[in-house]
Amino acid sequence: MITLRPSLFIRPARAGDRDAVLAFATATWSWGDYLAEVWDRWLADEMGLLAVGEADGRVVGVDKLTLLTPTEAFFEGLRIDPAYRGRGYAQAFQNYMLAEAARRGARTVRLLTAHDNSAIHHMAARDGLVQGPSVVPWHAPAANPLPAAPAVPLSPGPAADAAWADLPNGLLWSLLGGRVAHDWHIQAWTADLWASWVIAGSVWATPPGLVVLAPAQLYANPALVWLHPHGGQPDHLTALAQAARRLLTPGTTFDALLPADSELTAALTAAGWAGDSSDALVLFEKAL
Fold first, then answer.
1. Section 2-22 average pLDDT
2. In degrees to the nearest 10, what's the CA dihedral of 21, 23, 25, 28?
3. What is the structure's pLDDT at 5?
4. In Å, what is the CA distance from 136 to each residue of 46, 151, 176, 252, 273?
5. Residue 149 DSSP class
6. CA atoms within 13 A of residue 119's CA, in its CB half-sphere
7. Which of 82, 126, 227, 231 shows a CA-CA span of 20 to 30 A to 202?
8. Cα separations (Å) of 127 from 111, 171, 204, 286?
């Protein structure tokens, strides 16, 4: 526990802080907020940290540090009570979490924020976080009927190794700089992560290429995280986006967080996905 500013005391959250936090974190967006859904999970995260800030004897802020790997930290869930904004509390939380991430062994920290949230952009830049690529949320219902040539899970072995070796030649790798977005997080695409998803049955081989799903989600809907067409052809990309939808049972909705790009947007739209570039999120990243 540490006091970073005379009027703000930041400490690990406790179960009893939930109601105080939700009192100012339920209408963050027009549709509400997701903190109520993740509070218990975040509080129980022993590798990461859920922190709150107190001022004037009350909880007025909250922030979450998540370790996606032992060396990759992700900042999320920053909220400041509207009555206490403009006092530098968000910057205080970020400074606190940067120090905490380094203390816990992280070598890289990242965060995602709205493309038009200039206040957070400036705050991130002040602490040395560099702006990276943008990603767009997409949604699509399951397609029906099933394709004539169904997708099959890729098995560990030479085929999976060859597929991993070819991944850097794809459009998404180039757009995201060797990172992958999933579960509203972004982390480095590594051989270990690839192997774990192959073992989990989350990498699917289809005639036009590979489809990668998230093996577990923070939120309700299944998630698409990667498309890798054979030959890099635009029509293959559209076919892959269609194949991804057909992996779901009817009545299910797919989510995706994919890089902002005109070619990818055209392919997803043609395959029946819906996305809006005005909802784009921007990555900020810093090496510790």
1. 85
2. -170
3. 52
4. 30, 25, 12, 20, 12
5. S
6. 9
7. 231
8. 12, 31, 40, 9
